[in-house]
Amino acid sequence: MARFSLYDEEFHPSPWQQTWQEFRASHIALVGLFVLLMFIIFSVFAPWLVPYDPLEQNVDGLLIPPSWQLNGTVSHLFGTDALGRDLFSRIIYGCRVTLGSSFILVILAMLVGVSIGAIAGIMSGVRSSILNHLLDALMAIPTLLIAIIIVAILGTGLVNSMWAITLALIPQFIHHTRTFVRNEMKKEYVLASRLDGASNFQLFFNSILPNMIELLVVQGTLALSIAVLDVSALGFLNLGAQPPLPELGAILADGLDVAYIAPWNVALPGLTIFLMVLSINVVGDGLRSALRKRVSH
Amino acid sequence: MIRILVRYSVLFVLTLLVLTALSFVLAYLFPGDVLVNLSGITPENEVQRDALVRQYRLDQSYLIQFWHYLQQLMNGNWGYSFTSGLPLREEVGLALPATIEISTYAMLMALFIGLPVGYYAGIRSYSLSDRTINSVSLISYSVPVFWLALVLILFFSLELGVAPLSGRISLMFDIPSVTGFILIDILLSEHIDHGLALRDALHHLLLPTLAIGTITTAAMIRITRRSVIDVLQKPYIAAARARGLSRPQIFVRHVMRNASLPILPLMAIQITTLITNAMIVETLFSWPGIGNWLIQAIYQRDYPALRIGMLAVSTLVISLTILVDMFNRMLDPGRERFERGAI
Lengths: 297, 343
Prior knowledge:
The complex is a heterodimer of chains A (297) and B (343).
Chain A: H1 15-25, H2 27-44, H3 46-49, H4 87-122, H5 126-138, H6 143-154, H7 158-185, H8 188-195, H9 200-236, H10 248-255, H11 264-296
Helix pairs in contact in A: 1-11, 2-4, 2-11, 4-7, 4-9, 4-11, 6-7, 7-9, 8-9, 9-10, 9-11, 10-11
Chain B: H1 2-29, H2 34-39, H3 46-55, H4 62-75, H5 88-123, H6 128-142, H7 145-160, H8 182-188, H9 194-232, H10 235-242, H11 247-260, H12 263-285, H13 290-299, H14 303-331
Helix pairs in contact in B: 1-14, 5-6, 5-9, 5-12, 5-14, 6-9, 7-9, 7-12, 8-9, 9-11, 9-12, 10-11, 12-13, 12-14, 13-14
């Protein structure tokens, strides 16, 4: 949309509309958004979309190749695995498990991280300094390590691995929230509210939080891509979701035993994880550059 | 300068204390007997058990136990592994350098490929070549590392047969472990054909390094590109251009150094990802590193090994992170302390 005269323009887009316009201008980002939406639709409506039960074993149809190969059949779109389970149904359910659990844990990490980060940002002095330094250092512990420890204490399982990844993601949110809140606290509009008698609590919820939503969305997409990678990596290492549960990483690990005679059992789940992470990253990237352009205009 | 050094040393010691306390608490949190989790020795009778309890001061208060644990760690008595029965210090001493070695090569790959490509993309920002580089880096940044490793194995090892499937070096070579770094050990060892051994070791290194390095390189390209673009928009670049400096002059005198500064702290964050990826890839290539060792330990529920392994890996990662942070702060004291960007 060309804007030659600012004053003749009848339509004054809100910040979100501006962001959307900038976002829409990038074709790659839009494609990424469609792919991500497709994955979300797959996840939400999985029970109605799958042709077979993902756990149903079929002894008569072991290792059927995918439908585009010579020996494949249309009835099993992506072929079957070593137990005769329909791979397409398993992958659709896998999206549901992997993406769904990633969403949940990112939101959980965000809630906890933003609360602690806000307190750390508003607070000052020695307590805040100790908290900051320790968190900065502990932020560096790898997810895999936290996951191994939690698995050793609580045992394997999808929920336990989710706890581990949530714990690993929280420091990031704390960090960004704290930096943001600290910078905002120096600005005039916050000072104005403070002079009006707003408490710290009100300051955060009414003044700072609305300005922070964008940051949270961007950080959220970043965390989501990390979460998907970590959930599937832990599933793959047999530390997260356990085999009968269709989780993309676990499906990949299952396919490993027959990788040489049935490579699609490794290729397709991996490709799905890759596409999912790629679409999340493309959307996050598009969102970031849209926000950057909006601010610079 | 000295103040920064003191601050970071205090931070380092405090964090290490927290980590050690954590590893001590783990002995109580893990299932099973605390004594066995701490020592790795299953007592055969009551007499031995009482001796061990006295040796580990388990009959005294938690604080004294922790103090004793700290002393034991300092003295190098880290306990014994359940599964192998070997001293843990020896096992970690063998496994940790292998991981450090492979991570170092991946990091070098990121530095030698990622930095120049990132600079190039940043200078030519929003051109066709920049878009191509950016897309490729975004794609390689999104690949799950275990899948990438599998695809590499399927293609290079099984289809083409140009790279070996697993391990560090062919069994024909008997390399005594001196430093723990295979390439250095080969040069130090005697009675073998150095050229052949090095070639074999490099062949073994190729695929794991490629798998880990691809993702770090992609992150490096994105960080560098963003940083260069940010610098190019600064007023002093416009001023330099107005003075009539040519593009190479502007790049060498103004862009290169200023763009390098924000890269360092961002790479500190990447260290964590790098070590995690290295640990995952090790299990696929049977690389005898700490990741492989830890994952074997969790499969066999080897709690003493997990306790020490956790301490070793987190100490490694945190020392590196704090070191890079400190280095960065010395190089660029004017910078806001907690400033960190996105990739």
